[in-house]
Amino acid sequence: MATDEAAHVAWRVRTLSPSFSRASSSSLDTALVEEFARLERRIFPKHESLSSSFSQEVKKRNQTMLYVLIGDVVKGEGDTEETADPAKVAGYLMYSWTSLAASITKLAVRETCRKQGYGEALIDAAVQQIRDRRLQCVNLHVDPARSAAVALYKKKGFYVETTIKSYYAADRDAYRMVLQLISPENQ
Ligand SMILES: CC(C)(COP(=O)(O)OP(=O)(O)OC[C@H]1O[C@@H](n2cnc3c(N)ncnc32)[C@H](O)[C@@H]1OP(=O)(O)O)[C@@H](O)C(=O)NCCC(=O)NCCS
């Protein structure tokens, strides 16, 4: 758990309950997904945004949603009270997987929360879960103009495998980036 400057306030990466896909999903989970969609609408241009289909996307099988809430409250040693306020979403990451590989399909951090380590913590948590599934690699697509994201992925060990011309639009290419977890010869 990461600790902010006040010793009693901390945050951690959480995983959206897999039961969100069932009709009985909690009102907190529903409110969280609405907040992800609101951030998505604000951060990404329309053609890149999942906002209108967010609740459908997170219900898909083999899809995991991670998120961070600002200021989970820690009252004392072993006595943790967590916030349940969706307005406190600092960022989210979505990934999907097959039997061999995982893909990070979304990553965003609220504008006012950037450069505080949330993006890196979301990637670390996703990569750990993907390692635990014993998958070979993680891949993603990113617009080379998104320099903060490209720098973050490189810091976490991803490399540019190829550039895909006109991936997002006629004049917008994509890097396909890969993080190798298990070398194929060790399979
Ligand atoms: C990319 C993004 C998720 C980074 O989140 P963040 O929480 O600000 O990142 P962190 O604070 O964890 O930064 C970790 C590393 O990322 C890189 N980084 C983050 N912001 C950066 C910036 N503005 N410029 C250059 N490098 C940056 C640095 O390597 C940084 O490590 P450092 O602090 O040791 O220098 C965030 O800027 C964002 O949401 N951008 C808009 C959406 C987007 O582009 N998503 C990716 C789509 S594929």
Explain the overall architecture.
- It comes from Physcomitrium patens.
- The structure is a single chain.
- The protein is α+β, with helices and mostly antiparallel strands and 187 residues long.
- It has one domain: 3-Layer(aba) Sandwich (Aminopeptidase), CATH 3.40.630.
- The chain has helices spanning 27-43, 54-58, 118-132, 147-155, and strands at residues 2-3, 9-11, 13-15, 63-69, 72-76, 79-81, 89-97, 101-109, 137-142, 159-169, 172-180.
- The strands form two sheets. A seven-stranded mixed β-sheet has the order 3-4-7-8-9-11-10, with helices on both faces. Strands 1-2-5-6 form a four-stranded antiparallel β-sheet, with no helix packed on it.
- The longest helix is centred in the first third of the chain and has 17 residues, at 27-43.
- The protein is globular, with a radius of gyration of 17 Å.
Second-tier CATH architecture: 3-Layer(aba) Sandwich
**Quaternary structure state of the chains depicted:** single chain
Briefly note the structural class of the backbone: alpha+beta
Might you state the CATH topology name?
Aminopeptidase
Name the average pLDDT: 86
Biggest sheet: strands side by side, in what order?
Answer: 3-4-7-8-9-11-10
Q: Given the structure, what is the number of helices?
A: 4
Provide the β-strand percentage band: 35-45%
Biggest beta sheet summary:
7 strands, mixed
Order of helices and strands: EEEHHEEEEEHEHEE
- Per CATH, the superfamily is Gcn5-related N-acetyltransferase (GNAT)
**CATH class wording:** Alpha Beta
